[in-house]
Amino acid sequence: MTTATLTQSHGSQFTRIYSYGAARGDLIVPNSELIGPIDSSDEWIQQRTGIITRTRASAGMSAVDLATDAAREAIEKSGVPAEQIDLVIVATISNVQQTPSMAAVVADRVGANPAAAYDANAACAGFSYAVTQADALIRSGAAHYALVIGAEKLSDVVDPADRSISFLLGDGAGAVVIGPSDTPGIAAPVWGSDGSKADAVGMNATLTEFRDGAAPWPTLRQEGQTVFRWAVWDMAKVAKKALDVAGITSADLAAFIPHQANMRIIDEFAKQLKLPESVIVARDVARTGNTSAASIPLATHALLQEHPELSGGLALQIGFGAGLVFGAQVVVLP
């Protein structure tokens, strides 16, 4: 019997991020608007989280609308025609319609139809996971250009009276276009999960419990101290490992862009990594809040607007959150 030889795909040896796009909720919500239901104060929120305002989307604006706006900016800046994008990944936990995927809708809206498109649920590590997948798929030859988006409307899944998390959350979307490169632009990831701590942060009920009247609409909640300790100690080790995997040291970085969970976590991270003063640290959480999968691309977009000199420099990006999942990699900023 003669066995035919299969042809397997192969693509570019290297990839890089071409551009960033962003879309924030149209409402700026100060702490003063949220303190009543949680019996708190502006001072308490700022001391514990560093958040002064957060952006949220009005009732008529969906997560897919935010994703579309961010995607359009990223595509325009990238110089890649939308019809050449053949992969769209949306990292999200707040698609309130189980199917179709947000990615398929966005692909059609931006002119990338019939790109392969799917949603990825890795919570606050979602953007890192999606970048890792896009990088691997382009280098394998399964895709040529990828649109990666982190998009959340967390105000749809928050209980205003939940003192553990309600005041942290914002709405927004950040997008990147990834494609082939002559030189390495995205380092290997350090990613994983710890399902043994899955109860530390996540939804407080299931949709079937809601359907059966056994629970109210599911909302996010967390065990703040458990998450804080895990983020500060365990994730600092992941960040250090990501530098080692990339073959660099903290002194080689131009920027450090962690998930925008909490200013105290970000500041402790910087100490643990012994970042030199030359490294610019993203602190977008102060005005945007915690936007889960959208936070890293939103923070990077803001940093590049404020510091255009960062273009071409190395940035360590790390996401961590519900699951508990984590992902980190060093990238070259466009």
Describe the structure.
- By secondary structure, this protein is α/β, with parallel strands linked by helices.
- The protein starts with 13 loop residues before the first strand and ends with a strand.
- The strands form four sheets. The protein has a five-stranded mixed β-sheet with strand order 1-7-6-4-5, sandwiched between helices. A five-stranded mixed β-sheet has the order 8-14-13-11-12, with helices on both faces.
- The model has no long low-confidence stretch (mean pLDDT 95).
- It is 32% helix and 24% strand.
Secondary-structure map with pairings?
Layout: E1 14-24, E2 27-30, H1 35-38, H2 42-49, E3 53-56, H3 63-78, E4 87-91, H4 102-110, E5 116-120, H5 126-140, E6 146-153, E7 171-181, E8 190-193, E9 201-203, H6 207-211, E10 220-222, H7 224-246, E11 255-258, H8 263-273, E12 280-281, H9 285-288, H10 295-306, E13 314-321, E14 325-332
Parallel strand pairs: 4-5, 4-6, 11-12, 11-13
Antiparallel strand pairs: 1-7, 2-3, 6-7, 8-14, 9-10, 13-14
Helix pairs in contact: 3-4, 7-8
- The unreliable regions are none
Summarize the helix and strand pattern as letters.
Answer: EEHHEHEHEHEEEEHEHEHEHHEE
Query: Beta-strand level of the residues, as a percent range?
Result: 15-25%
How big is the Rg? 19 Å
Please report the number of helical segments.
10
Structural class: alpha/beta
What is the helical fraction, as a range of percent? Answer: 25-40%
Strands of the widest sheet, in order across it, are 1-7-6-4-5
Number of strands: 14
Mean pLDDT score, rounded? 95
Please describe the biggest sheet, giving its number of strands, its sense, and whether it closes into a barrel: 5 strands, mixed
Distance between the termini: 52 Å
